[in-house]
Design goal:
about 475 residues, binds uracil, alpha/beta, 5-stranded mixed sheet, 14 strands
């Protein structure tokens, strides 16, 4: 029996090198035991380096296997290294093995990878940073207990999202630290070191350029032992010490009563207060885990529809934008402000309207600190349509207004040119539909005169909706 010792629990490169040598030397999976070096143990294990290298020998595996193996190795199961080597061994003679979903090894690697991705997703969705220290030298910290060893893999997401704030993610496995330039990894800290009482001030605020998402904040508990271990020049240590000195003083009191910034007009607040209907709440909860298309991977969160269940008017937009993705609410950014104004001028109270989007995750490409909106593709629109259909069933509006081409495509089930079809009601599958332009089209028009004209046409369309509903939209 060969005992192969890897450097750490997530040592994919070590596993890959060892497995290559083992397989090229025809060492059967049943002849290999895998272990991980522990700092406090004297190692008696052999290693694959003792085997002759055969650099000229070819050994290719598919990119799919590598991707699965990189994810599965983060699973907490002790059996993962052996499973991966067994699969690698079998893939040499059975190239299509990964497609054999009823094979127990294949099923297991898929299940492990899925569990790891789910955990990464949970970390992305649930991790909350908390600000410590003073504004000038603020640092953000979060405590997270992953089910699997995902912190290193999940951390770059936060570097992209919170690029210009220094943060630390503390976990029992490893801690990840971002200084604005690079992520560094230090050993994990134990849960037992987390103080039970919250003694650091909590500051809810929005980052100036909108990259910082207040929805992601929550109380973070800082393990005291971690402070001791911080290097003398760490930014965090003096900040925490400062914060600790200020625990019961006026600083805390002032922070505690500092009002949360009001980012949304009152009408939207009323929407939130009123909605809370079981059917929509249940749909929203279910949709939070939607993986029907890949857009969930980069988005902060799903942005589901909002509004009273009794709404007679449903507005459907394209997809959440940058602001909506961060806030978790539809139409709260510039297009939302334009929409609110136009609705008001058409005599429609947004608080009585159910507002949603054809696609419920933000699609974008990063450009530096900016996330540039991308139009959703037809497969993405189709994949998300189930949610619109279920919202429609739950709300049963008298009229649906589709804002822009993507919304029209989703609502009417086919590509529908706006200019040709606007201005009159369309009957579709038992629902009255009105199509009009998207408010961001108006925002993009460079010419002021054209903008004013198009804005008026938009209001005219919305007035058709208001007339159609009579007073019913107001009675909702
Ligand atoms: N654009 C949309 O289509 N929907 C939003 O929620 C925001 C901008």
């Amino acid at each position: 029996m060969r005992i192969i010792e890897l450097d750490n629990d997530t040592d994919f490169e070590g596993w890959r090198k060892a497995s290559r040598r083992l397989a090229l030397n025809d060492v059967k999976p049943s002849e290999v035991a895998w272990t991980v070096r522990r700092d406090d143990e004297l190692s008696s294990a052999s290693c694959a380096n003792e085997l002759p290298d055969t650099p000229q020998a070819q050994f290719n595996v598919s990119a799919k296997f590598v991707e699965l193996a990189k994810a599965a190795i983060l699973h907490r199961s002790d059996a993962r290294f052996a499973l991966l080597y067994r699969l690698l061994w079998r893939l040499r003679s059975h190239h299509d093995l990964l497609g054999a979903t009823d094979d127990p090894d294949v099923a297991e690697i898929h299940a492990m990878a899925r569990a790891v991705y789910r955990d990464i997703d949970r970390m992305h969705a649930q991790l909350r940073f908390r600000e410590i220290g003073r504004e000038r030298t603020a640092h953000y910290v979060a405590w997270f207990e992953p089910e699997h060893r995902i912190v290193e893999l999940a951390a770059p997401f936060f570097a992209g999202r919170f690029a210009d704030m220094p943060w630390s993610i503390l976990s029992p496995d490893v801690c990840a630290h971002w200084d604005g330039h690079a992520i560094s990894i230090t050993p994990g800290v134990a849960k037992s070191e987390v103080p039970s009482e919250d003694r650091l001030e909590e500051v809810w605020r929005r980052h100036d350029n909108g990259l910082f998402n207040p929805a992601r904040l929550k109380v973070m508990e800082m393990p005291q032992a971690y402070w001791r271990n911080l290097p003398g020049d760490s930014i965090i240590k003096p900040l925490i010490e400062d914060a600790m000195r200020m625990t019961s003083g006026p600083f805390i009191a002032r922070k505690a009563i500092e009002p949360q910034r009001q980012d949304q007009p009152m009408a939207r607040k009323q929407v939130q207060d009123k909605q809370a209907h079981d059917a929509i709440a249940a749909l929203r909860a279910e949709a939070a885990d939607c993986r029907a298309c890949p857009l969930w991977k980069d988005a902060t969160q799903i942005v589901f529809g909002e509004g009273p269940q009794s709404a007679t008017l449903m507005l459907v937009g394209e997809q959440p934008g940058d602001k909506e993705d961060l806030a978790g609410h539809p139409f709260v950014g510039p297009a939302g402000q334009m929409l609110d104004r136009a609705l008001g001028e058409a005599g429609i109270d947004r608080a009585r309207v159910y507002v949603t989007n054809a696609v419920k995750h933000f699609k974008f490409v990063p450009r530096g600190k900016i996330r540039l909106h991308q139009k959703p593709s037809t497969p993405e629109i189709r994949a998300c349509r189930q949610w619109y259909e279920r919202e429609l069933t739950a709300i049963k509006p008298e009229l649906v207004v589709a804002l822009g081409a993507t919304a029209a495509q989703s609502v009417l089930g086919k590509i529908t040119p706006i200019n040709k079809n606007r201005g009159h009601l369309i009957e579709h599958a038992g629902t009255k539909v009105l199509v009009t332009v998207h408010p961001s089209y108006l925002l993009r028009l460079p010419d002021e005169k054209a903008k004013a004209l198009e804005y008026q046409r938009f209001i005219d369309d919305l007035k058709i909706a208001a007339d159609q509903l009579g007073n019913s939209a107001h009675a909702a």
